[in-house]
Design brief:
By secondary structure, the protein is an alpha/beta fold. The chain has one domain. The protein contains four helices and six strands. A six-stranded mixed beta sheet has the order 2-1-3-4-5-6, with helices on both faces. Strand 4, helix 4 and strand 5 form a beta-alpha-beta unit. Helix 1 crosses helix 4. It starts with 16 loop residues before the first strand and ends with a strand. The relative contact order is 0.19.
Length: 136
Amino acid sequence: MAGQRKNCPSNGPFQVKFLADMGISPQTVAFLRKLGHEAVRLPEVGLERKGDADVIAHALLHGEVVLTFDLDYPALLALNPSNRASSIIFRTQSAEPEWINLRLGETLVLLADALAEGAIVVVEDQRVRVRRFLDL
């Protein structure tokens, strides 16, 4: 199961469940909640000291999309076809929550289908790359 989505963009508002890695600011979690998404950080669910594989397993079990700056996630997801939770990886010059929130606000509605189907999304300063699990 990839990221759960309650509605699709063409039908109006949509909601994604997010699991924010430790490097993701609480401000970004609050921003996502304000947009109507479910979002939690690792400490809120007792995962702050767990390894990446445990975080991915939790996200998969709960239908969450992992938000991270950690470049290990794409490799873990690509190498384990039975344990794939969608993930958004940020590769930006700035990790400031204002910039991350702006990039999320600009791209989330465009990514809804890919995240629901299962994908690794890389958000950069000037572009977004989507790699659907079906393509791997």
